[in-house]
Amino acid sequence: MSEERSTEEVALIFTNAGDSVTLINTETSKYSYETEDEWKERIKRNVDHLETIKGYTKYTDDTTSIWGSEDFTAIDAAIVTGKAVYE
User: N or C: which terminal CB in the chain sees fewer CB atoms within 10 Å?
Assistant: First the structure.
């Protein structure tokens, strides 16, 4: 049988996704030391991270989503907001 992600690991992954949500929602302009392209790339990396997290599976053999009753409203909104920056 494949290794299963623990409940604690799933909770930590979801909590850590909040860091990307916060960055996307608060970094609405570039820092003085970065170019416009660098800022857009930073936002894109965080959007990509959130999209990857949404696809995580419970087992290491890529079966069954790890997500149950988690609310992805903030994550989905951050993805839309972030894509508006670089698309």
Answer: N
